[in-house]
């Protein structure tokens, strides 16, 4: 007879791989505070812990920072997505700080991309790794614009959905 495996669903969507207690659905670590197991398609439909305002000025960025900090303190968002959101908000602030250095259409495109990444993170349409890759690409684009480097990206280097 095969041992039962713990039914606990971790924050990354994977199940705990420990052996469940006899007659229980969970291992000794998760028997007290176990979350019900969810299907992946149902997990993507979970509402985000909060909605971000449009980030078009410093006060809206401050409101978004306050929302993220409250969500962290109230444990409505996990550390990795929160870190990515804070990084994206930092890039948003930097983009506004240097708006005069960039062509006007680039400022809007960068803000839109950052907003899309943050919303996709909140709605769990992308993971933190993908968000980090997109945010790094945005950061490099901002640096290139600031330094006056204007060249097209290499073939295939665009991140799908964020161009």
Morphology: elongated
Gyration radius, to the nearest Å? 20 Å
SS strand fraction: under 5%
Elements, N to C (H/E): HHHHH
Total beta strand runs: 0
Q: Strand pairing plus helix content: what structural class?
A: mainly alpha
Major sheet = none
As for the number of domains, it is 2
Question: Can you summarize this structure?
Answer:
It is built from five helices and no strands.
Structure characterization notes:
This protein is mainly alpha-helical. It has two domains: 1-46, no CATH class; 58-146, no CATH class. The chain contains five helices and no strands. It has helices at 40-43, 58-73, 79-97, 104-122, 128-146. It is elongated and about 65 Å long. The relative contact order is 0.10. The model is unreliable at 34-45 (pLDDT under 50).
Topology:
Elements: H1 40-43, H2 58-73, H3 79-97, H4 104-122, H5 128-146
Helix pairs in contact: 2-3, 3-4, 3-5, 4-5
What are the key terms here?
5 helices, mainly alpha, 163 residues
């Amino acid at each position: 007879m095969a041992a039962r495996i713990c039914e606990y669903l971790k924050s990354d969507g994977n199940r705990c791989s420990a052996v469940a207690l006899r007659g229980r659905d969970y291992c000794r670590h998760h028997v007290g505070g176990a979350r019900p197991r969810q299907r992946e398609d149902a997990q993507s439909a979970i509402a985000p812990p909060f909605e971000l305002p449009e980030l078009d000025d410093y006060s809206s960025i401050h409101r978004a920072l306050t929302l993220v900090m409250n969500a962290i303190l109230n444990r409505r968002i996990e550390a990795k997505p929160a870190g990515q959101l804070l990084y994206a908000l930092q890039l948003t602030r930097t983009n506004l700080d240097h708006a005069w250095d960039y062509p006007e259409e680039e400022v809007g495109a960068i803000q839109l991309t950052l907003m899309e990444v943050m919303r996709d993170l909140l709605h769990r349409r992308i993971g933190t790794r993908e968000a980090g890759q997109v945010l790094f690409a945005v950061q490099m684009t901002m640096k290139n614009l600031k330094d006056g480097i204007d060249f097209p990206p290499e073939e295939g280097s665009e991140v799908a959905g964020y161009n």
